[in-house]
Amino acid sequence: MKKLIMTCIVVLLFMVINEVTVASNNNGIVDPYQPITYEIMTSNIKELEKEFPELIETEVIGQSADDRDIILVKLGKGDTLVHINGSFHARERITTNIILKNIEDYANGYVNNSKILGYDVKELLDEVTIFFVPMVNPDGVDYTILGKESIKSPLLREEFDKIVEHPQSTWFTPGLRWKSNIRGIDLNRQWDFGWDEESRFDIDVPADAHFKGFEPHSEAEVKAMEKLSISNPFLIYAAYHTQGLEIYWYKYQQGEDLEEVKDITRKISNLTFFRPVPALNNIPQNFRSFSGYADWTAVELKKPSFTMEFAYRQYSEADFDKIYEPAKALGLLFAEEALNIKGNYNVEVIMEGELIQLFKSYEDGLEFVEKYTTEDMDIQMIKNQEIIYQRIGKPYFDDIKLMINEKGTGDIMTEYNEEALRYKGKTFLPLERLFDNFDMELHYYKELKLMVAQNKDNIVVMSLNNGSIYLNHDKISLDNGIMRYDEKLYISTEAVEFIFDVELNSLED
Ligand SMILES: [Zn+2]
């Protein structure tokens, strides 16, 4: 009898718990009342993409240190672009919930032609596309939810044990309050604006929070975000965090730029009731802001860039509704503001035929081109349909470090540490020296522009005219498979991987 009663209680309890889960599920794809792991996020995104194929497109923009994909979700149909990201900081992972919920709400709003807090979703998303990166730091987020077991790489686990043991990191609450990436580096103190001066917490080794790294942009997550940011013409950037109910907006703008960013900040503050930092009408002379993503984007890419702080320290996913309230329409506000300021940015920077940045002036554009593009790429600047700058890409020499690994086993075959040629974003190695390494004998038929390389197992025929490569009986076509420069022949890393069945891994940085 006792056993039966117990069983009944267990069954009842189970039903109650189930009821609660169902009730909070909102009947949608995204359940924001739970910690969202990398796996839940990727499955949510897949479902959203399936549900709204006309409106949502996804892309992988890079991999984290522990080899998780950093995913970009593009929402909308317009060519005016806005960028919003979340979970730079592991313990602020609820910003991923906010973003996923935004995506679902906005997509539903578009399809149902409904308004969100007065914003006409369809009208806005026909003009604007929002590029969301819901989880910049997936390894860190998974650690705060799943613990150390979530670290896949044995090497990273070893490094991680050292970080946790290190006395400096105990200054903070370890464990689930982890803020850094899984290598103990704070991804929002890594950015190359004022990075040298960054010493707010006096931490000079990897730690659970606040360590800026040994050099700027050293982390894979930061590199992926940098590439995304410089290769798309975003007009507004926003990074979602959760330490206070604040808007960090001021990045040393002056004149018109200052008025522009103040105006948007005022509107954000009216929508969210968050406090602008510094106050709009009282910017202290000594106000400093540096080494964060918003600092770097605002100063280097010269657009309004905001750090939004959505919650106080003590909260859980159960408090989602309250935290979400100010964020509900914020993405739409950014979309509307991007349309408002668009006309001020009429200098287009075009790389290899693609629009990559917009600026207010020729000088701003030129500064960007000189700092963030390499000389092997074709660049144009256009203002009012007139070409105001043009550069034809040409090959350049670069010192590189490569490891050539056997495919499958990953065994190191050889390390390659010398000069290479860069052209159109590809890397080319001196052909003779490389083939020598693989014991291949080389013949060049000048009139035919054909290279033939041979050893006891393989014969390779390469055409200098069209880049085609024949390996025994297989053929591949690569644009720029081999090229001739300064009387010497070079072969692309892609072609090397194909011919010798190897993997080339960069040892740079
Ligand atoms: Zn943060």
TrEMBL record:
<keyword id="KW-0645">Protease</keyword>
<keyword id="KW-0378">Hydrolase</keyword>
<keyword id="KW-0482">Metalloprotease</keyword>
<keyword id="KW-0862">Zinc</keyword>
<dbReference type="GO" id="GO:0008270">
    <property type="term" value="F:zinc ion binding"/>
</dbReference>
<dbReference type="Pfam" id="PF07833">
    <property type="entry name" value="Cu_amine_oxidN1"/>
</dbReference>
<dbReference type="GO" id="GO:0004181">
    <property type="term" value="F:metallocarboxypeptidase activity"/>
</dbReference>
<feature type="signal peptide">
    <location>
        <begin position="1"/>
        <end position="23"/>
    </location>
</feature>
<dbReference type="GO" id="GO:0006508">
    <property type="term" value="P:proteolysis"/>
</dbReference>
<dbReference type="InterPro" id="IPR036582">
    <property type="entry name" value="Mao_N_sf"/>
</dbReference>
<keyword id="KW-0732">Signal</keyword>
<dbReference type="GO" id="GO:0005615">
    <property type="term" value="C:extracellular space"/>
</dbReference>
<dbReference type="InterPro" id="IPR012854">
    <property type="entry name" value="Cu_amine_oxidase-like_N"/>
</dbReference>
<dbReference type="InterPro" id="IPR034274">
    <property type="entry name" value="ENP1_M14_CPD"/>
</dbReference>
<protein>
    <submittedName>
        <fullName>Copper amine oxidase N-terminal domain-containing protein</fullName>
    </submittedName>
</protein>
<comment type="similarity">
    <text>Belongs to the peptidase M14 family.</text>
</comment>
<feature type="domain" description="Peptidase M14">
    <location>
        <begin position="34"/>
        <end position="330"/>
    </location>
</feature>
<dbReference type="InterPro" id="IPR000834">
    <property type="entry name" value="Peptidase_M14"/>
</dbReference>
<feature type="active site" description="Proton donor/acceptor">
    <location>
        <position position="309"/>
    </location>
</feature>
<dbReference type="Pfam" id="PF00246">
    <property type="entry name" value="Peptidase_M14"/>
</dbReference>
